[in-house]
TrEMBL record:
Domain of life: Bacteria
UniProt-recorded name of the protein: DNA repair protein RadC
Keywords, alphabetical: Hydrolase, Metal-binding, Metalloprotease, Protease, Zinc
Family the UniProt entry places it in: Belongs to the UPF0758 family.
Gene3D superfamilies: Cytidine Deaminase, domain 2 (3.40.140.10)
Cross-referenced NCBIfam families: PRK00024.1, radc
One GO process term, biological-process aspect: proteolysis
InterPro entries hit by this protein: MPN, RadC_JAB, RuvA_2-like, UPF0758, UPF0758_CS, UPF0758_N
Domain MPN: 106-228
Gene Ontology MF: a single term: metallopeptidase activity
Xref: PROSITE patterns: MPN, UPF0758
Length: 230
C-alpha cells in the first residue's frame, strides 16, 4: 500500500489535479486530503479522507460539521491541531456562505432571511435564538445570538430581545431559531413568546417583522403563515 500522496501517479495527486484542472474538479475526498496534508503510517492523506467521509452514514462532508474536536481526534492521524484546523474551516465555510447571502437579504422576504441564517443554524445540536435587527430603510444593521437552550427548547427573555434592539436603534426585528429535531413546526411555547414579543414591540414602536424557525433544509415563517396579524 502506498502511504504518501507523492507516491501516487502525478496526475492523480490532488495538488497536481487542482493545478491542472481547477479546484472544482476535485472530489470531496481530494479536497479534504489537501487540507489534511498527511495521513498515518498505514494511510496517505487521501485514504484517511476517504475513511472520514465513509464514516458518515451518507452525510459525507457534513460529518465534519457534526463532530466535535474530540470526536474528530478519534480518527487515526487526526491530532488536536488537525481537528482544530478542520473545525476552523467548517466555521469559515459557514461565515462565507452567510456573507454571500447578505446582499439578497430582504426584510419582507422570509425565504431570503431563512437562507441567510440556515447554514449557521441547521447543524447546531442545541436551540439557538438569533435577533436580526433592521433600520427604518429595512437594511440589516446587526444580529446577535440571544440565547442557547437545550435540544428541545430555547431560553428567550423578551427583556434581552429589546435591550439589543434598543442598543442598535432598530425599527424592525426578526427572531430566528433552530429546531435540532428537524421538525419546523412551532411549539406552543414558540407561539406564546412570539405573541409577547409582538405586544412589547408595539409599546416600544419596534415591529416584530417575522419569527423564523430553521429545521433541516426547510423553515417555518410566522409572517408567511399569517401568525403575526392582529
Amino acid at each position: 500500500m502506498k502511504n504518501t500522496i507523492l507516491q501516487m501517479p502525478k496526475h492523480l495527486q490532488p495538488y497536481e489535479k487542482c493545478l491542472q484542472f481547477g479546484v472544482k474538479e476535485l472530489t470531496d475526498a481530494e479536497l479534504l486530503a489537501v487540507i489534511l496534508r498527511t495521513g498515518t503510517k498505514h494511510m496517505n492523506a487521501l485514504q484517511l479522507a476517504q475513511v472520514i467521509l465513509s464514516d458518515s452514514h451518507g452525510s459525507g462532508l457534513l460529518n465534519i460539521f457534526d463532530k466535535s474536536i474530540n470526536e474528530l481526534m478519534k480518527y487515526p492521524g487526526i491530532g488536536q491541531t488537525k481537528a482544530i484546523q478542520l473545525k476552523c474551516i467548517t466555521e469559515l465555510t459557514k461565515r462565507i456562505s452567510k456573507l454571500s447571502r447578505r446582499n439578497n437579504l430582504i426584510l419582507s422576504n422570509s425565504e431570503s432571511v431563512a437562507a441567510y441564517y440556515s447554514e449557521q443554524l441547521r447543524h447546531e445540536q442545541l436551540e439557538h435564538v438569533i435577533i436580526s435587527m433592521f433600520d427604518k430603510k429595512s437594511q440589516l444593521i446587526g444580529d446577535e445570538v440571544l440565547s442557547i437552550g437545550t435540544v428541545s427548547e430555547s431560553l428567550l427573555s423578551p427583556r434581552e430581545v429589546f435591550i439589543k434592539a434598543l442598543e442598535h436603534q432598530a425599527v424592525y426585528i426578526i427572531l430566528i431559531h433552530n429546531h435540532p429535531s428537524g421538525n419546523k413546526m412551532p411549539s406552543k411555547a414558540d407561539k406564546a413568546i412570539t405573541r409577547v414579543i409582538m405586544d412589547v414591540g408595539e409599546m416600544l414602536n419596534i415591529q416584530l417583522a417575522d419569527h423564523i424557525i430553521i429545521a433541516d433544509n426547510e423553515y417555518f415563517s410566522f409572517f408567511e403563515q399569517g401568525l403575526l396579524d392582529r
